[in-house]
Amino acid sequence: MLFMTVTMIFTALSVSHALGASTKGELLLKFKPGVSQLCKERILSSSSLEVLDEIPQIETLVVSVPQDALLHVESALSHNPMIDFVEENRQIPPSAIPNDPYLGSEWHLTQISAPQAWDVSTGNANVIVAVLDSGVDPSHPDLAGKLLSGYNFYDNNDNTSDVYGHGTKVAGVAAAVTNNSRGVAAIAWQSSILPIRVTDTGGYTTYSLLAKGLTYAAERGAKTATMSFLIYGGSTLSSAAKYFMDKGGLAVAAGGNTGAYQSDSDNPYILSVSATTSTDSLATFSTYGPYIDLSAPGVSIMTTVRGGGYGSVSGTSFSAPLTAGLASLIFSANPTLTPYQVEQVLESTAVDLGVPGYDTYYGWGRINASSALRAATGVTPPKDNTLPIVTITSPSNGSIVSGGITVSVTASDNVAVSKVELYKDGNLFATDATSPWEFYWNTASDTNDLHTLVAKAYDTSSNVGQSNTVTVNVFNTHEPTSPDFALSASPSSLNIKKGSSKTSTMTVTWLNGFSSAVNLTASCPSAGVTYTLSPSSVTSTSGSATSKLTLTVSSSTPAATYTITITGTSGSLKHTIAITVKVPGSPK
Fold it and tell me: Rounded to an integer, what is the distance from CA 485 to the centroid of its chain?
């Protein structure tokens, strides 16, 4: 048995209380990369938040708050610049439609051309399907030989027996023992099943339990994970699904059984599946919307039931494991494929239903196992050598910053960005694993001086893209404890046409009784940009003094953005600031 080792920064308590009646509500909270541990503790304390649990792989806390204060606290935290995201740890019902057990035909396997697909692959025991549900019946004759040792996140133990009956049905659709002259057949004959219990005895789960289950499945090496619950997204669950995808797995979720439109946008890390009938029409109960990626049979599906028997069930709860099982076959047939490529195979080979192309009812269409397997075996993934594109969008180069600021980064890739690192003064400052790529920097912890920022973006093939260097001038107004001076510029950014000049005012402020003269110099990186400082040495009269910096751009200066460094010195004291000069392409 493989055990998952995690490091907790807070004491974790049992989360089994989360689904019971309580005067306490729960929030899921993630701080932005760069926030110090001391600041985290102060925020938690000031909001009277009690840490119940942690999901360390995605740096997310489960915290309790009085139920009547939950919305107020959530709103306040959402406006705190140190918070990456905060959301309620909602209860989520299973997406099953009850149906009396009876022995019927497995029309769904024929509908998706599974028999033809099995000529290509019946799966591989090393390709694991994680079932995040109410547990799985360990004694069922069509499942017992397929089950790995899993984990029960509801009770925090290794007992993954089915407490509600839903998980056994889901597991049977995905990967029941097949070709054994007993019971039912499943799409993924050979795939192993990793049971992960995430529900109470009534079949309800939460975002935090699903996120813990997904990160655990990733650590166990699962290639697919099926979540048969009414979920559309959520920052915590999206972070966990991205973590699972970065580890090589594809998360599949039920589309929901409300029968109504749901406006949530597509989640790039979760494959959401609607339900179809034997006539390839949308099931009347199936939820639809722009988050739907694919559709799969979900009405009168024959499967295993708790207690050793078999029965017919309906719901998107069973469209999801059918799709996850097919994804497992694709991983088995071509182990070189990435999760993104497996999703592309599923979508490109689906049977187009509804209006031509993508639609909100069927997504890219109803899954087709035979076409998917034959396409997958003919794919030789090209080596990905494309570097991610990354840019620091805020703060801007040459800007003056103070206090706590958010460093914002945009990053894109031809496949996917797996993480972004921020370097400050050449040293790794913080890492962000999910978009939006944002970092919190308390500039008061740094010296009043020039500091450089560089972002690096990594993709799933370990290609690394690097941003241009952004130089900022940290200037916090808190006074030092010893005599000193401060240096600033206004404006700190100039647009200068070729053959012309512009000025900026340098201001020197004397602090704590300091009164010595300050000498000013400038450094221009191009011979085509010249300067004069008048005066070049300033003395204290009323606590501050100014000098006029005149920058001249020659008519032959290349069009570019230049950084001019201004240095003030007085004895052993030295401060620098930066001014950016943008030279357009032609003189006017």
Answer: 44
195-225 burial by CB neighbour count: b if 16+ within 10 A, else e?
A: bbbbbbeebbbbbbbbbbbbbbbbbbebbbb
Domains 16-89 and 389-474 share a fold: no
Question: What pLDDT, on a 0 to 100 scale, did the predictor assign at position 100?
Answer: 32
pTM reported for the whole predicted model = 0.79
Contact 535, 547 (CB under 8 A): yes
The highest-level CATH class for domain 484-583 is: mainly beta
Active site residue 478: no
* Residue-by-residue DSSP string for 559-574: SEEEEEEEEEEETTEE
**Which of 53, 84, 133, 137 is an active site residue?**
133
Taking alpha carbons only, the member of 501, 536, 505 closest to residue 521 is: 536
Q: What angle do CA 244, 198, 345 make, to 5 degrees?
A: 35
pLDDT in tens, 181-195: 888 989 998 999 999
- Our answer to whether residue 317 is catalytic in this structure is yes
pLDDT digits (tens, 9 = 90+) for 11-63: 233 344 445 545 789 999 999 999 998 889 988 988 889 999 999 999 999 99
CATH T-level assignment (fold) for domain 16-89: Alpha-Beta Plaits (3.30.70)
166 is catalytic: yes
Pick the CATH number of 107-376 from 3.10.129.10, 3.90.380.10, 3.40.50.200, 3.20.20.80: 3.40.50.200
Contact 570, 519 (CB under 8 A): yes
Given the residues 108, 113, 140, 166, the one annotated as active site: 166
